[in-house]
Amino acid sequence: MFTRLLRTTALVLTVGSTLLTGTVIQSEPAHAASNMVPDYEVKILMSPAAVLGSDNKLKSDVLDTFAMPSSVTKMNVAFLDTNAKTIYTGGWSPRIRKTEGESKFELSYKKRYPIANNDINAALTKANQDGFDSSDTNYEAQVEWGYQNKTLSITRSKNASKSGYSGMDLPSVSDARSLMISNAPGKFDDWLSNGWGTSLLGSSRYYGPVLAKRSIGTWNGLKLYIEVWPIRNSAGTGTEYIVEASFKTTSESTASAKHDELIALLQSKGWFLAQDSLKTQLIMDRY
């Protein structure tokens, strides 16, 4: 007790001396968490006229080139937003997806950051300033690497069940709203104000759905995906097919080198489409 009294007396003397001299005692500076470490998904478009048959399935020579079976995995996908697309304008894309063979719905809340002048670190730093840093392991960072443009996406994914649905069916819009609201992560919900995200989801509708098909093969030691997305055309009178080849890697240098190699291969086959992949934007514009 006496020792504690001496310490208390010393503290009082120190504080008193500080007040008299005007000296400021500074605490140790807090160290900000580091930027997130992304993986990389390279996405290259293929010409539908060149790679799809009359049945809108991949031609056999495409399947053979990438050692792909004729079987596909179906994915039923829709985004939720208001009629004014307020969530999308705010940089977020809430999505619900049902994948063939999976029993639950996948809910994802994706925040997008444009990457200007190939400066990936600048986008990661901006995300860090918004609260997405390496300390939060619930979110995944990915650089979506297209033909010419890159985008940083920060995504929180969850799985949810809802009775009364089977096969590839998505839930009704009201049930989808309920699932997305009850599972909404805090950073999405409180993005611009408290309850911003869930309030907007409460008056949201579907953009989509789109029933896409995925083929899986290999190329240069990497798992390669080719997805065929039948999206409503700009006139709203028919269907436009988007065909996208993609692979994932944790290495920026591998992504860069294989990006160029894949384009060169597709060009040599006459399969390359010199555009950036904008599936989400097309769906938001056309539904």
Helicity level:
25-40%
- Tally the helices: 10
- Give the second-level CATH assignment, the architecture: Beta Barrel
Tell me the radius of gyration: 25 Å
Number of domains: 1
Write out the CATH superfamily name: Hypothetical Protein Pfu-838710-001
Catalogue the unreliable spans: 1-29
User: What is the approximate shape?
Assistant: globular
Mean pLDDT: 91
Question: Which tags fit this structure?
Answer:
31% helix; globular; disordered N terminus; Hypothetical Protein Pfu-838710-001; 287 residues; 10 helices; alpha+beta; nine-stranded mixed beta barrel
Give the arrangement of secondary structure elements:
Blueprint: H1 2-21, E1 39-46, H2 48-51, H3 60-65, E2 73-81, H4 86-89, E3 92-99, E4 105-115, H5 120-129, E5 140-145, E6 150-160, H6 173-182, H7 186-189, H8 196-201, E7 205-219, E8 222-232, E9 239-249, H9 252-269, H10 279-286
Parallel strand pairs: 1-5
Antiparallel strand pairs: 1-9, 2-3, 2-7, 3-4, 4-6, 5-6, 7-8, 8-9
Could you please describe the fold and organization of this structure?
The chain is an alpha+beta fold. It has one domain (35-286): Hypothetical Protein Pfu-838710-001 (Beta Barrel). It is built from 10 helices and 9 strands. It has helices at residues 2-21, 48-51, 60-65, 86-89, 120-129, 173-182, 186-189, 196-201, 252-269, 279-286, and strands at 39-46, 73-81, 92-99, 105-115, 140-145, 150-160, 205-219, 222-232, 239-249. It has a 9-stranded mixed barrel with strand order 1-5-6-4-3-2-7-8-9, surrounded by 4 helices. The protein starts with a helix and ends with a helix. The model is unreliable at 1-29 (pLDDT under 50).
